[in-house]
Amino acid sequence: MPEISPPDQWSCPLPVRAGERVVLGHGGGGVLSAELIEQVILPAFGGAPAGGLRDSALVDVPAALADGGRLAFSTDSYVVAPLFFPGGSIGDLAVHGTINDLAMSGALPLMLSCGLILEEGLEIDTLARVARDMGRAAHAAGVPIGTGDTKVVGQGHADGLYVNTAGIGVVPAGVEIGPARARPGDVVIVSGPIGEHGVAILSQREGLEFGTTLRTDSASLHRMVAGLLSAGIDVRVLRDPTRGGLAASLTEIAADSRVGVVLDEAAVPVPDAVAAACGFLGLDPLHVANEGKLVAVVAPDDADPALAVMGADPAGRGAAVVGSITDAHPGLLVGRTRLGARRVIDRPLGEQLPRIC
Amino acid sequence: MRFLDEFADPVLARRMIEQIKATATRTWTLMEVCGGQTHSIIRNGVDTLLAGAVEFIHGPGCPVCVTPLEMIDRSLEIASRPDVVFCSFGDMLRVPGSGRDLFHVRADGGDVRVVYSPLDAVRIAADNPAKQVVFFGVGFETTAPANAMAVVAARERGLRNFSMLVSHVRVPPAITAVMRSPRCRVEGFLAAGHVCTVMGTAEYGPLVERFGVPIVVTGFEPLDLLAGVRQSVELLEAGAPALRNAYPRAVAAEGNPVAQRVLADVFEVCDRKWRGIGEIPASGWRLSGEWADFDAGRRFAVDDLEVRESPDCRAGEVLQGLLKPHHCPAFGSRCTPRSPLGATMVSSEGACAAYYAFRRLEVPSGA
C-alpha cells in the first residue's frame, strides 16, 4: 500500500492553463489521457502509487486478515450537482462516502479507487479542484487512492463530471455489525445535528438563501467507528443516513432486524437553519440527506460510553440518544411527537418535492 | 427554533388539550379546511390527543388534490410539446392524470422544471426566448397573488413567450359547498390562516350567519391549531356561532390590501370544477380579459382530451369530509403513494397521504 506524503509536499502547482477544457481525446488512452492523469490527477492525489502505475493496485495483506478478519468491499457513484457547494465538493464527498460505507460495517478502510467520467468541455481547472479535494480528503482520512480510471463522454452526456469510488477494508475478527442485529431494549444514537448536507446542496442548487450559511457535514467517520470498537462498545448496527435521511436509515433497521424503532422527535438534533429551510419548503428534516453522520444502535448499557467516544471526535459533536428499539411494532419506525402522540415515520417515495404553499 | 418552537411547546399544548377536553361536553366535529393543517394535525397527533372532545373532518383545502383531471391532462399535453418549458411547483409533478404524470413527461423528454417561485418561470422565459415557457398556476388565495405578480412582471418585461395555466381556487365557496351537502356533519370550521393572511376575514362573517356555524381562523403549529380548536369548542358549547381570529400574529381582519389589488387586477372570479367534487359556483379564478393573452389554455389549444378518472377513487368524498381516508376500500391496498388512484394519496397535503404516512399503527393498510 503506498504511503501518502502531506499535501503541502505534493508536486503541484498543476500545469493547467486557464480555459483549458476536457476534449474527447482525454479519454482515448493516448498521450492526452496520460498527460491528464500524470499532470492533473496524480499530483492532486499525492503522486503515483509506489511501484508505478499498473492495471491494478497491489494491496499488502494486513495482519488483521490473517487473524480471522474479513475483507469489506464497497462502491458508490457521485452525480451531485452543483460540483461545489458550501463546505465541500463532489470530490471530498466521494472519498468520505465510500470510507463511511466501509466504516458502517466496522471495517478499517485500506484503499480507494477513483473512476472519473468527464464531460467534454469541462474546464480542466474544475477537474483539478475536484481531484485536489479528493486527494486532501483521502490524506486526512489516511486512506490512499490506489487505482483509478478516466473516461470522457460527449457534451450533454454528463453533468460536468461524475465520480465513482470503490474501497476495500478489513473488518477485524469478532466485529459483527449488521443491519439485522438490533434487539428490543437497544438504544439509538445519532452522531450529531441532521440535515445540513441536504439543505446546503439545495440552497446552492436552487439559489435559495435561508439567512444562515449552512455547510455540508461531509466527513470521514471510520475513526469514530474504530473508537467505538476499541472502547469495547457492543455496536449492533451502524448506518450512515445519507439519501433518505435519518428516517430511511431507521426504517431499514426496523425492517432488517424485524423490530420496532421508536424515535423521540424532540431529542433529534435539528439545527435552526435546517428546520427553517425545511419548514419553508415543506420538507421533513428526518428525510434530508447527511454525509458526515452515523446512526448507531448499541446495547443499553453502552449508550453513555458511546456518546463519550463520539463526542471526542470532531465529527461527533452534538451526538444524542434519539430513540430505542422495541418489539411493539416490528418493521415500523414510530415517532413520539413533541406533544406525546405517536405517528408512523416512513421513507419518502422518491425525491422530496417542495410544496405549493 | 425561535419564533416557531414557542408554538410547539409540549407543556402548554398539554394544558390546552386538557382545557379543551374539560370544556367539551360531547364530541364536536370540526373541519380543518386546509391540507397543511390536516398534515400538522395528523403529524403531531393532535387528533388522537383530542379524541372524545373533537372529531376532525378533513376538508378540501389541498390545491393539488382539487385541481381537475382535465387540467392535469392539459398540463401533460402542453408539457410534452418540444417547444415548451413547463414550470411547476414540485408537488404537482406526481399527480396522476388520466394516464401518466409530469414526471413521466419529463422522463419521455419533456422539459419540465420545478420552480420555487413563479418569478423563476418568468426568468426562464427571459433566458429562453426561442421557447414557450408555461407556468402551472395552482393554489388557493395563498399563492394566487404571487402568480398574478408573475404575469404582471412578464408584461413589464415584454415577454411574449410566457403564459400561465391557471387553476386557482377560492376557499369560501368550498365552505358553502360543504355546508350545502345533505350529508354534511361539520359543526365548525378552522379557516386556513395563510389564506386569511391575504384575504382577511370579511368573507367568512356571512358564512357564519348563513349556516350558523362558528369559523375560527387558525394557524399551523400545534399551539396555533389548539388555540383555534379551543375557541371553536367554546363557541359551540355556548351555542353562539361567531367568527374568531385565533391566528392574530399573522392575520389582520383586512388581510393584505396590496395582494388583493393585484388579484383583482389580474384575475376574475369564475365557476371552477374541483377534482372529485364537481363544479362549485364562483370558486375559481381565471385571468381577466385584459390579461387573457397570458392564458396558456388559449395559447395552446388542447380540446380533444379523453379524461379517465379511476372509478375506484373516492377522493371526492374524502375532500368533502364524507369519508375518512382509511374507510375507503382501496386505501392501502389498491391505492398507495406508489400507485395512487387519486391526488389525495399523492399530494404532500392530501388527507389520504397523511393517513397512509402517519397512521398505519391505528388504521389497516394492505400495503
Automatic annotation (TrEMBL), chain A:
| Span of domain PurM-like N-terminal | 55-171
**Domain (PurM-like C-terminal): residue spans on this chain:** 183-328
Biological processes per GO annotation? protein maturation
Cross-referenced Pfam families:
AIRS, AIRS_C
Q: Which family does it belong to?
A: Belongs to the HypE family.
Q: What is this protein called?
A: Hydrogenase expression/formation protein HypE
Which organism does this record belong to? Xylanimonas ulmi
Lineage, uppermost ranks: Bacteria, Bacillati, Actinomycetota, Actinomycetes, Micrococcales
Automatic annotation (TrEMBL), chain B:
- Please give one Gene Ontology molecular function term for this protein: 4 iron, 4 sulfur cluster binding
In which domain of life is the source organism classified? Bacteria
Q: Which GO terms describe its biological process?
A: protein maturation
Protein's UniProt name: Hydrogenase expression/formation protein HypD
- Please give the InterPro entries that the UniProt record associates with this protein: Hyd_form_HypD, HypD_1, HypD_2_sf
**Pfam family of this protein, just one?**
HypD
Q: Which residues form a coiled coil?
A: none
Q: Which organism is it from?
A: Xylanimonas ulmi
Print the keywords alphabetically. Answer: Iron, Metal-binding
Entry keyword annotation includes Iron: yes
Instruction: Please give the family membership noted in the entry.
Output: Belongs to the HypD family.
